Amino acid sequence: MTCYFKLAEAHWTPPHASWLNQAELFFSALTRRVLRYGDFASRDDLIDKLDRCAIKHNDTAKPYRWTYDGTPLKAA
């Protein structure tokens, strides 16, 4: 488990909520939005489209709301 401190307050995150998961989500969205069906005239065109996608993502980003309550998953 990871612990983050903020002014004498400890915030525990679930063990599956690493920064790597967030990076994987970002690159997955980038692949779906830009790369999968992209048609690029040049390397510079590809870079320009990747930059525009990242800037748009940063402008519209919202905090992630955790829904995991810590209880073990039940078998179906």
Give an overview of the whole structure.
- There is one protein chain.
- With 76 residues, the protein is of the alpha+beta class.
- The protein is 46% helix and 13% strand.
- The protein is built from 2 helices and 2 strands; from the N terminus they run ββαα.
- Strands 1-2 form a two-stranded antiparallel sheet.
- The two termini are 27 Å apart.
What is this structure's SSE topology?
Blueprint: E1 2-6, E2 9-13, H1 19-35, H2 43-60
Antiparallel strand pairs: 1-2
Key attributes of the depicted protein:
disordered N terminus; alpha+beta; 76 residues; 2 strands
Strand line-up in the sheet with most strands: 1-2
Order of helices and strands: EEHH
The tally of beta strands, per DSSP, is: 2
Query: CA-to-CA gap between the ends?
Result: 27 Å
Strand percentage: 5-15%
The rough form would be described as elongated
Number of helices: 2
Category by helix and strand content: alpha+beta
**Biggest sheet record:** 2 strands, antiparallel
